[in-house]
Amino acid sequence: MINTKHLLIWGATAAACCASSASTMPVDCGTASCSENLRLSEAVQSEFNAHPALAVDHLWVTAKGGVVYLHGLVDTTWEQQQAVQVAQNTPGVRQVIDDLGISNE
Fold this sequence. Notes:
Elements: H1 4-18, H2 34-49, E1 59-64, E2 67-74, H3 77-88, E3 95-102
Parallel strand pairs: 2-3
Antiparallel strand pairs: 1-2
Helix pairs in contact: 1-2
């Protein structure tokens, strides 16, 4: 079975790697750190998956140089705060940029 969450992470990262320099995606794959960015994105997503209180189906993560960008929708402010906290506590994360929207408030 294919894990669509990992495909979403990989797809977002791959799309950013192939995008023009005018892209707003926060990933620079012109360096050797592209695989590290992908690894960090996957690590944060894995941490999200380990927290059943988080509705992770509508979240995706990108990373660049230890900075993690959270994208998507959550149901509540509490869920948004939890997502940021989980990301901040993931090894290798230096900073979290919260670009999450709240759908039910």
